Automatic annotation (TrEMBL):
EC number: 2.4.1.-
Protein source organism: Pararge aegeria aegeria
The protein, known as: Hexosyltransferase
Main location: Golgi
Subcellular location per the Swiss-Prot or TrEMBL entry: Golgi apparatus membrane
InterPro entries linked to this entry: Glyco_trans_31
Gene Ontology CC terms, in alphabetical order: Golgi membrane
Family, per entry: Belongs to the glycosyltransferase 31 family.
Gene: jg13812
Membrane topology: Single-pass type II membrane protein
Molecular-function annotations in GO: hexosyltransferase activity
Domain of life: Eukaryota
Length: 318
């Protein structure tokens, strides 16, 4: 029986959330092996990512990436919560249409849902066939686990795709402009592009949504990182990130952990791209057409931005 873990980040206790038919119990994280002369002693309060991540996917849909991605230019994986069906529909009906191209693939990546959500998700997946569901319980504190599930899927089923865009279901993506960006950076390796934040300080107050315990990240300044709403990776960055993650203390801020902590440890380039707005912007046709990624887009706003992206009347300065 595969269990699904969720991190309670303050107490560092692991709650095991099993599949139907098993009981729920609370346990603490498993202790590490006894230290040797060559191995520094690990603080027993520190939870490593390997203590929490559960590999594998339910109905992984390898057909979404034909020939392991050999004929694709771009793979778009959209992280989504099980209950966000209306947001997924908005993406499918607007910018997600570009997945109809033979050189673009798109899927939604979810964590394991509550049992009450399973029937609805099964019906949605039967209709669209684009839901990739990981084994770790879906929650805000588990966003890092969801992103690792996304990287695992790409590495397993689409390893030959040259570029991966990680984005969220409240984003509007200007796919034509993104494809032009991809074309002008074809020979770049081991790079993450996006809205790069530099010299950001960890939030140490437990009242903050972005609280980080010193046990999760002891440093005073985060490494440079690309913000999580949308960032683009070269495919050769995916496996090294997956291999480096298990031995690092679990950090629930997925963008800081994946693109910052791991990216810095691996010596990957984190490059700022102004077109990754990763914020809400004025819904003017020129702003939409110039950008790559717009954040905080509600269901009904996707259709307005889609119309403005396709607007053929407004004259925009280059």
């Amino acid at each position: 029986m595969i269990t699904i873990t969720i991190l309670l980040f303050i107490s560092f206790q692991v709650r095991i959330v099993p599949h139907a038919g098993t009981s729920v119990r609370n346990v603490t994280a498993a202790p590490s092996a006894a230290p040797t002369a060559a191995t520094p002693r690990r603080d027993p309060r520190v939870v490593l990512t390997r203590d929490l991540y559960v590999a594998g996917h339910e109905q992984p849909h390898p057909e979404l990436c034909p020939a392991l991605g050999a004929h694709l230019r771009l793979l778009i994986l959209v992280t989504s919560a099980p209950s966000h069906s209306i947001a997924r529909d908005a993406v499918r009906l607007t910018w997600g249409h570009y997945a109809a191209r033979r050189d673009v693939a798109l899927a939604f990546v979810l964590g394991s849902p509550q049992e009450s959500m399973r029937a609805a998700l099964e019906a949605e997946d039967a209709l669209y066939g684009d839901l990739v569901i990981g084994r770790s319980f879906d929650s805000y504190s588990n966003l890092t686990l969801k992103t690792l599930s996304m990287l695992e899927w790409a590495d397993t089923y689409c390893p030959r795709v040259p570029r991966l865009l990680k984005t969220d279901d409240d984003m509007f993506i200007n796919v034509p402009r993104l494809l032009r960006f991809v074309s002008t950076h074809e020979n770049v390796t081991r790079t993450i592009w996006g809205k790069v934040v530099r010299k950001s300080l960890p939030k140490r107050t437990m009242k903050s949504k972005y609280y980080v315990s010193p046990l999760q990240f002891p440093g005073k300044v985060f490494p440079d990182f690309a913000t999580g709403p949308a960032y683009l990776l070269t495919s050769d960055a995916i496996r090294p990130l997956l291999e480096a993650a298990p031995n690092e203390p679990y950090l629930r801020l997925e963008d800081v952990f994946i693109t910052g902590v791991l990216g810095a440890r691996l010596g990957m380039k984190r490059q700022h791209v102004a077109e990754f707005y990763n914020k809400k912007v004025a819904a003017h046709p020129c702003a939409v057409q110039r950008g790559i990624a717009i954040h905080m887009v509600q269901y009904h706003e996707q259709f307005d931005l889609w119309r403005k992206l396709l607007d053929g009347k407004t004259k925009c300065a280059s």
